[in-house]
Write a structure and sequence with these properties.
Blueprint: E1 3-15, E2 23-32, E3 37-41, E4 45-47, E5 51-54, E6 60-66, E7 72-81, H1 91-107, H2 117-128, E8 138-148, E9 155-167, E10 170-183
Length: 184
């Protein structure tokens, strides 16, 4: 049974959503193989045009488990620009709740090991609760990716999630998040 890790590396901002300056960029979501689930919630990173910043608290290794070869690793992330202050003092507690909510939600599905990556995102969002006011923050993009474990090569595989949105000269954005999937 191979050891699989998912590690958030950094975010590059090519164009902020906020037209007056830096965005307060953060990610939430989950990573799961249908049996092992881990919540994701990074603290906001102040990032401006043409800057690359490493993930701080909540970044780094976001999934680390022994995973059977016949499973599919699902990565489901949402990027936000924080527009309203949050109570980040409960960060660790919320990450745990996200992982538990994804595990509980997947337990209600007939075959959680084959569920699509998009299936785990609503479970993760429902667990965020009081720390977030998602309707007040600007959603920048969603990332749903599946990795059959038998096809993950030994060593590291760099993944780049590029996304953009908005339109015209006002409130458009473009980002790239880099993360690594590591087998072994």
């Amino acid at each position: 049974m191979p050891r699989i890790r998912v590690v958030l590396q950094d975010v590059t901002c090519y164009d902020t959503e906020d037209v007056t300056g830096a965005d307060e960029f953060y990610l939430t979501g989950a990573v799961s193989d249908g049996g092992n689930s881990a919540g994701v919630l990074t603290r906001p990173i102040s990032v401006n045009d043409k800057q690359t910043k490493a993930f701080g608290i909540g970044g780094g290794t976001i999934f680390d488990a022994d995973v059977p070869e016949n499973r599919i690793l699902k990565v489901a992330l949402i990027a936000f620009d924080e527009d309203s202050n949050k109570d980040w003092s409960k960060h660790g507690e919320v990450v745990t709740k996200i992982g538990q909510a994804v595990s509980s939600g997947l337990a209600t599905i007939p075959n959680p090991y084959t569920a699509a990556a998009g299936t785990i995102l609503p479970f993760a969002i429902s667990a965020i609760g009081g720390i977030m006011s998602l309707d007040q923050d600007d959603e920048l993009g969603q990332h749903l990716r599946e990795f059959p474990v038998w096809a993950i090569p030994n060593g590291e595989s760099l993944q780049i999630w590029g996304f953009k949105g908005g339109g015209g000269w006002y409130s458009s954005w473009r980002y790239a998040v880099r993360y690594r999937v590591i087998r072994g």
